[in-house]
Amino acid sequence: MGSTEDLDHPQTILQYNSGFLVSKVMFTACELGVFDLLLESGEPLSSDAIAARLGTSTTGMERLLDACVGLKLLAVELTQGGALYRNTEVSNIYLTKSSPKSQYHIMMYYSNTVYLCWHYLADAVRSGEEMLKFMAGQNSVWSICGRDVLAAFDLSSFTQIYDLGGGGGALARECVSLYPNSTVTIYDLPKVVQVAKEQFVPPEEHRITFHEGDFFNDPIPEAELYILSKILHDWDDEKCRQLLAKVHKACKPGRCELLKSRETLTYR
Ligand SMILES: C[S@@+](CC[C@H](N)C(=O)[O-])C[C@H]1O[C@@H](n2cnc3c(N)ncnc32)[C@H](O)[C@@H]1O
């Protein structure tokens, strides 16, 4: 990024400028069932056949298919009868609904929900009130899967837990409910801790405490278990290394970190 080539021709800036087009082409082909149809058909199909089977316009479909070819999500074979399209291997594995490794459902969530929310990013940045909605949003997922995440490993031997960047505290609440002998300290930025206290964690919940701090610039106190849930994806590799090194230093031998990113759960 910022290379001398970029100064002559801003390749990076142009890629960022149109990045959303790439996502939307992939989402649309998934949503319309292009990859599923090509998997089921077992043979390459023309754009007319695909359009007819999926009930779309022929020109629109042809353009979408060609865009997918450009993105290497589809391959095209030029025959005397016209162009025939088929899935690439990667599309068969990740973009079809029936594949065990299918990413279809998360993509539909991104396309129909996350994509729309990001339209209002500038408003969200302008307005501090959005923080409350963001925290509630972050919390809501834990009412569905918090217990499963926390039960994936037996954490009952840990009584003193720090949830770094613990936000609104929904995971902390699940944790003390599942492991009644534990206490969880939500470590987060002062303004977030204030909102968590006022809005999300009932004062009678004495097993949850708070620590106002910046995990990059302030000390991280000693604890038996550190939870970093949906934290690392926010930072570049250097920042993640910095944070993990700090947690590692605070962690005494035999103590642990539970890392939950969007896709993975790690216990070490
Ligand atoms: C994506 S949210 C995840 C919230 C929660 N862990 C969860 O799983 O729902 C990231 C959290 O990290 C907190 N955070 C960001 N930078 C931080 C910092 N430097 N020190 C402490 N917390 C921070 C944010 O305030 C926010 O609550």
From TrEMBL:
One Gene Ontology biological process: methylation
InterPro entries: COMT-like, COMT_C, COMT_dimerisation, SAM-dependent_MTases_sf, WH-like_DNA-bd_sf, WH_DNA-bd_sf
Keywords on record: Melatonin biosynthesis, Methyltransferase, S-adenosyl-L-methionine, Transferase
Enzyme class, first EC level, given as a word: transferase
Stretches assigned to the O-methyltransferase C-terminal domain: 124-254
Residue ranges constituting the O-methyltransferase dimerisation domain according to the UniProt record: 15-96
GO molecular function terms listed in the Swiss-Prot or TrEMBL record: acetylserotonin O-methyltransferase activity
EC number(s) stated in the UniProt entry for this protein: 2.1.1.4
Pathway entry: Aromatic compound metabolism; melatonin biosynthesis; melatonin from serotonin: step 1/2
Record carries keyword Zinc: no
Keyword Magnesium: no
Role according to the record: Catalyzes the transfer of a methyl group onto N-acetylserotonin, producing melatonin (N-acetyl-5-methoxytryptamine).
Protein name according to UniProt: Acetylserotonin O-methyltransferase
